Amino acid sequence: MDRVTAAVRAFYEAYPYPPGNRPDCDAYHGRLLLSYIERPKGMPKQLQLLEAGCGRGINLAAAAALQPQDQFTGIDINRVAIDEASANTRNKALSNLNFHLADLLDPASLPGVSRGYDVILSYGVIHHLSDPLKGLQQLTQQLAPHGVMSLMVDGRYGRQPLDRFLQALQIVSADGGADTERESTARALARIAERGVFHGNCWQGTSSVDEVEFADRCLHVHEQSYDIESLWQLLDRVGLKFIRWHESDDWSVAHISDDLELFEPLQALEPSVAYQVIERLTYRPKLSLVVARKEDRPRLPLTEEQLLSNRLCLSPQLKQITDEAGHRQWRRRGRKLSIDVQDLAHRLLMAASEIGSGFTGSQLLQQLTGESISPQQGVDSLRQLYALECLYAPHETDGTQS
Ligand SMILES: C[S@@+](CC[C@H](N)C(=O)[O-])C[C@H]1O[C@@H](n2cnc3c(N)ncnc32)[C@H](O)[C@@H]1O
Predict the structure, then answer these.
(1) What does pTM read for this prediction?
(2) Which ligand 1 atom is at minimum distance from the Cα of 59?
(3) Looking at residue 304, what is its pLDDT?
């Protein structure tokens, strides 16, 4: 193991990530992730999912409990985190989940599966590797031919306020000192930064986050960040390509500007070039995306005919909540959707929640038989729900066993 990897391991063993016990597994759904590319050949009944750098495994455990039909594997270099994750799995008696101590940079330590993993997840890990290219190469080798990878790396431009803070910390504590001293200096500087470089952006509040989160942001021993260009180059070198962002709206010209004069020239740019403009104009601290092999293609939007006849599912990322004023709201990945309880789309979502598992668009519309809605209104509402990603179309499996 190289010196940097050993230091990263020691850091995470002191501060096992993620902090707390509230899982966030919205980005861990295998069938949803695979639905983002055109139908892969040989898609098996039981998916194999790998999380590379799973830390304490709380997100993976939550995902495994929600998707009992699929098999989940978590790996990490951190023995403390893997021991905790394995003990929790035993306590919860989750038979579709296992954890292994492994180094992403050491192929011999990785638990492979014979036909490759259908889905590989890796959030907040690649940018801590001493050799990110090698790490991503190893993961690509573990990916099934039809598989997808879901990644998150730090974004260079969005991190600039934090990088300025880290430079200040480096100047103040360049002569080393005890870890506790460094942490209290960092907290004190972060309190100043709250009124300065952290003000009004995603780093606001850093001075008061818990110990583990604070260490991850402010005391890390090795990290690098990416911009669109360098990330695209890294993907290209390992034979992968961009499929989509997790939060497409954050990267859509239409969502960042309503200036019609700007809209057309921006819209005319190559998508990756438009993303370079957006990353410079906005704070995007994380680049969170789905990638696949170069030969795979992003899924085309469903036609009207397919919306009515294909099997659809409710997005696992969709939640209905009641706000403080007692109003019901639909949210996807924590963001409020523009669906009012008076809308037909709302009633369709309620009907879909009652059906539960898959349904066709036609079957869903039939649930509202008592209502006088035209076929066009029905299709328009289905299209709205599909565009808002409340509904997705999972690929049918080939029945291949894992
Ligand atoms: C920021 S944490 C992310 C944990 C988890 N993915 C999450 O999102 O909560 C980074 C994790 O990557 C792990 N890691 C770093 N280098 C690694 C390596 N070479 N091999 C395996 N895991 C590694 C660390 O131990 C740590 O648990």
Answers:
(1) 0.94
(2) 9
(3) 92
